[in-house]
Amino acid sequence: MTVYWYNGKLISSPTIELDIYDPGFLYGATVFTTLRVYNNTLDSRLTNWSAHCDRLKFSLHSFHWSEPNWEQVRQGGQLLLAHYPVLRITIFPDGRELIIGRFLPPNLTSQQTEGIKCVLAMAELGRSLPGHKTGNYLSPWLAKNQATDAQEAILVDVAGNWLETSTGNLWGWKDGTWWTPPLTAGILPGVVRQQILNHLENQQIICQMEPWSADIVQGFEAIAYTNSVVELIPIHTVQYPTGSLPYHPHHPSLQQLRSFFLA
Hints:
It is a single chain. This protein is of the alpha+beta class. The chain folds into two domains: 3-102, 2-Layer Sandwich (D-amino Acid Aminotransferase, Chain A, domain 1); 108-262, Alpha-Beta Barrel (D-amino Acid Aminotransferase, Chain A, domain 2). It has helices spanning 23-27, 49-63, 70-80, 108-114, 138-146, 191-202, 214-218, 254-262; strands spanning 3-6, 9-12, 31-36, 86-91, 97-102, 116-120, 152-156, 162-165, 169-174, 177-179, 207-208, 222-227, 231-240, 243-246. The strands form two sheets. Strands 6, 7, 8, 9, 10, 11, 12, 13 and 14 form a nine-stranded mixed sheet that branches. The longest helix is centred in the first third of the chain and has 15 residues, at 49-63.
């Protein structure tokens, strides 16, 4: 049975009814955030409900869109967490909310342990409005689906700098420290990215925020990506048109990032 929450109502159906002129349908004019529910509660530190709502509020204010009834949004999330461990909260320009759920990837544990292969996407597949998570997500969707012999795609800018994967933020280890692309490079300010940055700072672990040029990525010993659903996934190979770069998916430094999800 498929259940979702839409505009203040819990609905049991695999379909939704929208006006054919709804800008969310026509143009992807929505903002969304995806979270993983830990310990069956929205109030878990790792669920981080408030940070996900703050992400939505930031985009709504930036676009001058209406805010939803936040108590209603939480009510929908509370009802759906009984059915799904992962919730996607979408807000329409007029303040309507849509919350759908899904399950964790079946191969998540093996990917967290063994790592994955990525390919570099074409520069033209950069995300629209990268500082916001909008419903116009065609570019990263294409990038990931065109990565036919890999599990993820890495988005790049016109200069070839690595930005982020199609679904998460990048981390690299070299010279005894962590590196992550800066927000000014044009990446999504991920909720987990900020949580891990805070965690590293609390552990007095330095993180360099520099653009990931060709010279920098060749020097990494290990790289990984994070998001609110998969936590941390090491990357063992990055394929590009003329070759590939190998990385150590079992590098001991990765435990510094994983420790955030255990603390």
